[in-house]
Amino acid sequence: MVILGKSNSIISFLPPEFIPVVIIIVSIIALTIIIERSIFYWRMRTIAPDQLRTIKDLLREGKWDEAKDFSDSLSKSPASKVLQIGIEFKRRGSLYIEDEMETEGYRQIFLLEKFLTGLGTIAIISPLLGVLGTVTGIIRSFSEGAGTKGAEVGISEALITTAMGLSVSIPSYIFYNYLVRKKEEKITEMENISNQALQIFENN
């Protein structure tokens, strides 16, 4: 059997629109992740320095409920969630405040990183899918023979898939880097506020 012959070509069993459709599906997934993550991070307001000072004053005075409610009213960020866990266990007189805060911190990091690996993967594989479409298009063109309609379809497939792959990869990579930076900012804020809260808990 001739692998790349006109009648027996492996590529001939794949319709020309197969890889473009795959790229479109991948682009829809990427867009969904970008929108979901952008809204997710947008809702997380940063706790301002003056607001943090108010929380710390309430903690030093032992006003646990007020500090917890005030923190919750300011932001739904990971820093606020971890702080509220610490306040709750401090109010209970628990000996494992730091452990509970650390556990909640890991949970928040998991939520922050959700879907980001998928978006990064899409940014990497999209141009590869475009290259794959280019290769299959060229193979289809040669196997069909110069000047035929099949050759024209193959060349069109090669050009279109390359452009589609890049058009998905570039914005995906840009938003991936942006979202990773937002994630790092939230983690840094969480660690900073947690350390300050733990120092107050130890002194009270």
Account of the 3D structure:
The protein is an all-alpha fold. The chain is built from seven helices and no strands. The protein has two domains: 117 residues; 63 residues. Helix content is 80%, strand content 0%. The protein is rod-shaped. It starts with 17 loop residues before the first helix and ends with a helix.
Task: Describe the structure using short key phrases.
204 residues; mainly alpha; 2 domains; 0% strand
Secondary structure: elements and pairs:
Blueprint lengths: L17 H25 L6 H12 L3 H11 L3 H14 L5 H17 L2 H29 L4 H55 L1
> Element order, helices and strands?
HHHHHHH
Shape: rod-shaped
Residue-averaged pLDDT: 85
Helical coverage, percent range: over 70%
- Helix count, DSSP H or I runs of 4 or more residues: 7
First-last Cα distance: 82 Å
Number of strands: 0
Rg? 27 Å
Low-confidence stretches: 1-8
| Tally of distinct domains | 2
How much of the sequence is in beta strands? under 5%
